Amino acid sequence: MKDLTTPISEEDIASLQVGDTVTISGYILCGRDAVLPKVIKMIEEGRAGELGADIKGQVIFHTAVSPAGVGPTSSNKLEIESSIAPLSAAGIKLHLGKGALHEETIAALDTYNSVYAVIPPVTALLGKKTTEQKVLAFPELGMEALHLIKVDKYPAIIGAAHGRSIYE
Fold first, then answer.
1. How far is CA 166 from CA 4, 20, 23, 91, 158, in A?
2. Taking each helix axis from N to C terminus, what angle separates 36-44 and 78-90, rounded to the nearest 10 degrees?
3. Cα radius of gyration rounded to whole Å, the chain
4. pLDDT one-digit tens code per residue, 42-53
5. What is the pTM of this model?
6. Which residue of 29, 84, 148, 156 sits 20 to 30 Å from the alpha carbon of 123, by its own alpha carbon?
7. Please, are residues 60 and 30 in contact by the beta-carbon 8 Å criterion?
8. CA-CA distance, 104 to 65, in Å (whole number)?
9. Which helix (H) or strand (E) holds 158?
10. Are 55 and 92 a contacting pair, CB within 8 Å?
11. Residue of 99, 16, 12, 9 lying closest to 58 (CA atoms)
């Protein structure tokens, strides 16, 4: 088990291998299909600083944040998977969700020294490990807005790293 704390360093990512189990602690971003295209647009427009958190070395959890808690959504949805390469290029180091990714996405992760980790859909467990939450951007999207949450030892398994996938 490897313990990761945000922001995550280049060296930490370089040391991870497919199948490694990790825990993630610190502040992480949460967003899914409704908000990620908006975040990408802000990055492309040079307005990432307006998001309310530095994205370099950050984790993005593919989830909505609701009163029921957080749980992973499918990372291979078009709007989510298509955000992985540009978010990695902008400094996101770890993408957290569920499901298999396409080969092109796995290659993009490798290009930007980023990884993808799968997290089991266990909302009750994750709720106890989420200690703070706030909306950073796009509040009109409700639970699908861009959130920043503080987590304590979220469990995950590295699902794609260095051009390889756990789903091969």
1. 20, 10, 18, 23, 8
2. 30
3. 14
4. 999 999 999 999
5. 0.85
6. 84
7. yes
8. 29
9. strand 146-161
10. yes
11. 9
